[in-house]
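are you around this afternoon, could really use another pair of eyes. what follows is a protein written twice so to speak, once as letters and once as structure tokens for the fold. i want to understand how the tokens follow from the sequence so walk me through it. anything you notice is useful, everything is just below.
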Amino acid sequence: MADIFQNQLIDILPKLRVQALALTRNRTRAEDLVQDAVCNALKARDSFIPGTNFAAWMHRILRNRFISDLRRHRATTDIDTLPGDLLATKPDHEDRLAIKDLAHGLAQLPSDQREALVLVVLQGMSYQELAEVSGCAVGTAKSRVFRARRQLQTWMMGELPEDDRLREEAAALRRRLERTGARKSEEVGKGV
């Protein structure tokens, strides 16, 4: 059993790294998270039931470790930063610009949507597996992926996020009101 467990653990490492990077958005912290999750799994290997979904078990351990680390280091953890080396190369053609925009869009997504999108789209996890890993209903898992896809599509097509769009509409309305107010005071001054 130990050999099977270790082989499954080695096979899942690349997928755990992708999930960890999606959660932390920092390669160094992602590697630390994977290492900690593997240590937790090795300590708890006797609790794993052979024949059950090992990948979901490992993804759940990694996610729980991430949440525990966030709670422990809430004041010092900055999850809104992109890995510096991810965008270090200056884009010199459209593909690199699109990747940069996609990375920026992913970074703007709420963490639950970003994680769901990465696990389903990049790792090929089913909605049922995502629900198990995330500890939510299958419908919630589907909704998270749908909302993440829709929001990324909106941003990639050049539309502003909802908050920015509302700010711009409010500013435009304010400018119109100011112009209208200025015209009325000119009319009053002319005796119209």
About this structure: The chain has a mean pLDDT of 79. The chain is about 75% helix and 0% strand. The CA atoms of residues 101 and 184 lie 45 Å apart.
